[in-house]
């Protein structure tokens, strides 16, 4: 594999979304192109109603069980879900259909998203909504109001998902100055990690002192600003090393390092091994 492939939603649909129900009887043994490691240019949501399943996302195994909701971001490298007699829903949504304030909830958390356990009531409501969306998605094609109907139903699903994930009681989600700074910092980090690597530069963009920013981020997440900068950069480096054959020098260049030797030293300090050793061990 020369580089990590990107799965384009527009190659599969012209309406900005896909919805599929999977059943315990579905045969997932046949490997397909979509089963290989890839990124998407869209969001993916999974809702399991029965059984369990496993996803490998950014080199981490994520276990889903009945009654859990989970999502994958466009930047994340993942494999197709593997299920053990599971049933549930798959929903792919174009980023253009997700309002900016919703994306802020889904994307701008420093700690990676985790599967969310739904109450019996929530599971029933999600299931009913997805059944309706699936029915309209299939049966309403050709109708004059097809797009407004399915897009409105998708917005209802997204609103429910935002409510579900934002209601999780963590320090990061509380409406404090530190929590707001953490969200703003994450947004900047997503945009500028390849070009800005100095904690003081992020503090300047946020109009606070480096010490104040570091204290706020550590209070919310338990880790420093420098740690999260390294996490953002080297998570992408690990994706490229593991899932592609891109040369290490090219990876360093793509991540904004003009000094190749410095990239090697920084990666080793953060990961405990060189990039080449990480690639070699990861593929054994």
Automatic annotation (TrEMBL):
Q: Where does the source fall among the domains of life?
A: Bacteria
Q: Which Pfam families match?
A: AraC_binding, HTH_18
Origin organism is: Mucilaginibacter mallensis
TM regions (residue ranges): none
Q: Does the keyword Cytoplasm apply?
A: no
Q: Which SMART domains does the entry mention?
A: HTH_ARAC
The protein depicted here goes by the name Transcriptional regulator, AraC family
Listed A to Z, the keywords are: DNA-binding, Transcription, Transcription regulation
Ribosomal protein is among the record's keywords: no
Cite a single GO MF annotation. sequence-specific DNA binding
* Residues in HTH araC/xylS-type domain copies: 182-281
Against PANTHER family, the record matches this protein to: ARAC-FAMILY TRANSCRIPTIONAL REGULATOR, TRANSCRIPTIONAL REGULATORY PROTEIN
């Amino acid at each position: 594999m020369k580089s990590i492939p990107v799965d384009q939603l527009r190659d599969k649909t012209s309406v900005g979304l896909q919805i599929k129900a999977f059943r315990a009887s579905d045969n997932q043994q046949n490997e397909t192109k979509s089963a290989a490691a890839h990124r998407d240019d869209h969001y993916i949501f999974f809702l399991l109603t029965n059984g369990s399943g496993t996803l490998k996302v950014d080199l981490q195994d994520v276990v889903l069980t009945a009654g859990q909701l989970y999502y994958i971001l466009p930047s994340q490298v993942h494999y197709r879900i593997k299920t053990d007699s599971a049933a549930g829903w798959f929903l792919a949504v174009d980023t253009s259909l997700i309002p900016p304030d919703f994306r802020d909830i889904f994307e701008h958390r420093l700690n990676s998203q985790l599967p969310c356990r739904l109450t019996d009531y929530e599971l029933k409501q999600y299931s009913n909504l997805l059944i309706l969306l699936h029915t309209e998605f299939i049966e309403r094609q050709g109708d004059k109001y097809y797009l407004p109907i399915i897009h409105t139903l998708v917005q209802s699903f997204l609103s429910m998902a935002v409510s579900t994930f934002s209601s999780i009681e963590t320090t990061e989600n509380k409406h404090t100055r530190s929590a707001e700074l953490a969200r703003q910092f994450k947004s900047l980090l997503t945009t500028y990690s390849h070009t800005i690597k100095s904690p003081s530069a992020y503090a300047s963009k946020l109009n606070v002192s480096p010490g104040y920013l570091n204290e706020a981020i550590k209070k919310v997440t338990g880790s420093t600003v420098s740690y999260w900068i390294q996490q953002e950069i080297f998570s992408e480096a690990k994706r490229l090393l593991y899932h592609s054959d891109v040369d290490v020098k090219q990876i360093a260049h793509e991540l904004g390092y003009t000094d190749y030797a410095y990239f090697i030293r920084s990666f080793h300090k953060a990961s405990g091994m060189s990039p080449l050793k990480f690639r070699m061990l990861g593929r054994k």
